[in-house]
Design goal:
Helix content: 55-70%
Order of helices and strands: HEHEEHHE
Low-confidence stretches: 41-54
Mean pLDDT: 80
CATH topology of the largest domain: Alpha-Beta Plaits
Strand content: 15-25%
Number of helices: 4
CATH architecture of the largest domain: 2-Layer Sandwich
Radius of gyration: 31 Å
Length: 158
Amino acid sequence: MATKKKDIQPFCHYEEFKKKYNKTIFLRRHRYGLFSIFTIVLLTAFFSGNAFAQNKSQMVRLAKLVIDSTQLENYKAALKEEIETSVRLEPGVLTLYAVSEKEHPTHITILEIYADRDAYKAHLQTPQFIKYKNGTKDMVRSLELVETLPIVPGMKIK
């Protein structure tokens, strides 16, 4: 019986050696690939964290307006000028996107995305916004500003 145990033990040691040897060979063969994957994971985590932190500070809101139907075309022209100028000149204005309802064309909603609250405050002081606000104050029947939280932060508009 003792002989059988000795016969079995070297076999077990061989299997353990084989497993360790194969693992060592695998790691040696793939060390650069594993290092690359590890580096990519770390960089992705780092840059995703920065992007999330950036998007976390973004200010996103909806402006819901009802416009006087007799002034609708004049309002659209003023809004178009203000949006185009703001997006072109202000780096903190990320998106200003206006839509009107099909059934109620005087109901306009503007998606506003600013880099942060400071960018929004700066936007309110620009000549184009002041011109828009003063020029359209008699056209706007109602205004509702809705603070929002993005469901998919960082989503890019194509």
